[in-house]
Design goal:
Layout (H helix, E strand, L loop, with lengths): L28 H11 L6 E5 L4 E6 L5 H12 L6 H7 L5 E4 L2 H9 L2 E6 L5 E5 L28 H11 L5 E8 L5 E8 L5 H12 L9 H8 L11 E3 L2 H9 L3 E5 L5 E4 L17 H30 L7 H10 L7 H21 L2 H22 L4 H14 L5 H39 L1 E2 L2 E2 L41 H5 L1
Antiparallel strand pairs: 1-2, 2-4, 3-5, 4-5, 6-7, 7-9, 8-10, 9-10, 11-12
Helix pairs in contact: 5-8, 9-13, 9-14, 11-12, 11-13, 11-14
Length: 501
């Protein structure tokens, strides 16, 4: 099932609502109020207010700002003639528009607008006075770092877009809006740089977002699974970040950024496998340190995935590869263990995952204490009771620590899961099964793509020019080209010779 590709959605399958199916605004005040009550299920927060000069206001009390309603609408409509044009001129709210269909009025009122109806006119005025209940900007939680900006996205789509515009003051920054979800009508924004991003890639992303037919999209992680190339694969093909500086670096490299209202993370595409092991702090430290950290993360990934399966394969079928100086300690350590190595390894790996999951679900202070104390107590008791060996305890701990070096939470989960099938293959077929699992993963990664671009770029297909900022990071003066994976319209960032001078 790893090789099953998600079918692309053709543009002719995207259903567009026509104006012929929409209901016109009635000229009668009573009929307008009755229809709006019916459409909004006559909720307890549905309010109407009739003014003496003939205006009728309809709004949802839980979505409107009372100060703005009184100051910018009610105070302005009191002494004018009850016509839509006069109301449009008098209201001081910036987001005002004329609506002539009931459906448009319902969409506006659900977004915090007040509808102003004038008896005898088949149009209404919608003025957005929505409450601004946003969480204040805080430090990043999952992508914390020492150097660089200390600010993260929050749940407000408008605030997140404003953060990107402040970091990237460029007139070519395009912002396209969409609505996804039949029940939630979630606002989605697609951002890209007009003179850098590939138009074919932008069209592909636009078609995928417009082709989604689902009840709700509550978070960016849900949307990324709906628009990625292979939804059946275990590896994520799109990156999520809560850092505005990282999202801006994606835009500058010709990538696309997708934001979802109510989500603290944004989607970046296309991405490569190596980018899941890169941190934004790599750009803020010396290139030698950044290269060492990237190599360390890649080494940790290999250790986390293959260390325990190699131990199981060696003790099960390949004793001859173990040095003689280690045979005696291994024999003494396993002399009281009643289980074969595969059962022993799977038991300990499951215990580690149970401790990790329990620590993540408990409150912060209790979770940290439980994780440390639980690991020590359980590990010591397991060795004393003869259920496992000391050497495997060390191997399991090293593998678990190595999995936490990945800067990306999603890739860290994938690394932890991959150990289980590889342990089973190593336990039944030794190094032959381990090599089969490695080849299977490699073929799967080669076949993967991110928004139509190779997932293993720049290693497959080989693009040596992009190696200077992938597994290694050369000095800034050497990284003056945008990655070929994004097919940017303008490949060169700056002139390297002047930068070096």
């Amino acid at each position: 099932m790893f090789f099953k590709k998600q079918q692309s959605l053709a543009p002719d399958r995207i259903k567009k609502e026509t104006t012929d199916d929409k209901e016109l605004i009635p000229v009668s005040k009573d009929e307008f109020i009755s229809i709006m009550k019916q459409r909004l299920q006559d909720g307890a927060d549905f309010k109407t207010k009739e003014l003496a000069n003939g205006f009728t206001l309809v709004f949802l009390d839980t979505l409107t700002d009372k100060k703005m309603l009184n100051k910018d609408i009610l105070a302005r409509l009191g002494g004018i003639s009850a016509t839509p044009d006069e109301a449009l001129k008098s209201i001081t709210v910036s987001s005002t528009s004329k609506q002539k269909y009931i459906e448009d009025g319902v969409d506006a009122i659900l977004k915090g607008a007040v509808l102003v109806h004038s008896a005898g006119y088949p149009v209404i005025i919608s003025a957005v006075v929505a409450t601004q209940e946003n969480r204040s900007l805080t430090k990043p939680e999952t992508e914390s770092q020492v150097m660089g900006p200390q600010i993260a996205f929050n749940e407000s789509l408008a605030t997140n877009i404003s953060l990107l515009r402040r970091f990237l003051t460029n007139a070519n920054l395009c912002n396209e809006s969409f609505t996804v979800g039949k029940q939630t009508n979630s606002a989605v924004a697609l951002l890209y740089l007009k003179d850098i991003a590939d138009e074919e890639m932008v069209d592909r992303m636009r078609e995928r977002i417009q082709g989604i037919e689902i009840d709700s999209v509550m978070d960016s992680s849900n949307l990324s699974q709906l628009i990625e190339d292979n939804s059946m694969g275990i590896f994520p093909q799109m990156l999520l970040t809560e850092r505005p500086d990282r999202a801006c670096s994606w835009l500058l490299n010709g990538k696309l950024v997708v934001l979802v209202d109510g989500s603290v993370q944004v989607i970046g595409a296309p991405q490569s496998f190596m980018e899941f092991f890169e941190s934004m702090e790599d750009q803020n430290v010396r290139w030698q340190i950044a290269t060492f950290l990237r190599l360390l993360r890649m080494f940790s990934m290999v250790v986390s995935v293959f260390f325990t399966p190699i131990y199981v394969a060696a003790l099960t079928l390949h004793y001859e590869i173990i040095p003689q100086t280690l045979l005696v300690p291994l024999g003494e350590s396993r002399s009281r263990v009643p289980f074969p190595p595969i059962i022993e390894a799977l038991l300990l790996e499951t215990m580690i995952e149970l401790l990790r999951e329990a620590a993540a679900r408990l409150p912060t202070k209790v979770g940290q204490t439980m994780g440390i104390v639980g690991g020590i107590v359980v590990g010591t008791a397991a060795v004393d009771a003869g259920f496992t060996s000391n050497i495997l305890i060390i191997i399991i701990n090293v593998s678990a620590l190595s999995s936490f070096t990945s800067p990306n939470y999603m890739m860290g989960n994938v690394i932890r899961i991959l150990r289980f099938p590889l342990i089973i293959l190593a336990g039944f077929w030794g190094f032959y099964g381990l090599m089969f699992g490695f080849c299977f993963l490699l073929i799967h990664l080669i076949r993967q793509s991110s928004l139509g671009s190779p997932f293993l770029a720049p290693f497959y297909p080989p693009r040596f020019a992009d190696w200077r900022d992938s597994i290694i990071r050369l000095p800034i003066g050497w990284t003056n080209y945008r990655p070929a994976q994004t097919r940017p319209l303008d490949r060169k960032k700056y002139r390297a010779r002047k930068t070096k001078q």
